[in-house]
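hiii, so i know i said id send this last week but things got crazy w the move. better late than never?? heres the sequnce for the chain we talked about at the cafe, plus the structure i predicted for it. fair warning i was half asleep when i ran it
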Amino acid sequence: AISEDSPGIQDNNVLIKAGKTNSIIITFDRDYGELVFKRNLSPPSGIVYLRFIPKSPEEAAQYILNLLNRKEITIEGNLTVAE
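okay and structure toks below
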């Protein structure tokens, strides 16, 4: 996780790093959509914005796994908002 590897890293640098490593950003921070769409920063492979507060880390992990397993949802190349 980038928060462990680079604590305090700025959002725009997270985008750059994710782009270089072909990574998908999974976040509770809505600023990534603004950085990509309003400030025209290069998007990573995908962004999943979780717009809810999970009761536990396990709940968030299960939600993400369920989301990734849904065939009708394409994460790569998109900003996916999960509520």
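btw The longest helix spans residues 57-69. thought thatd interest u
miss u guys!!
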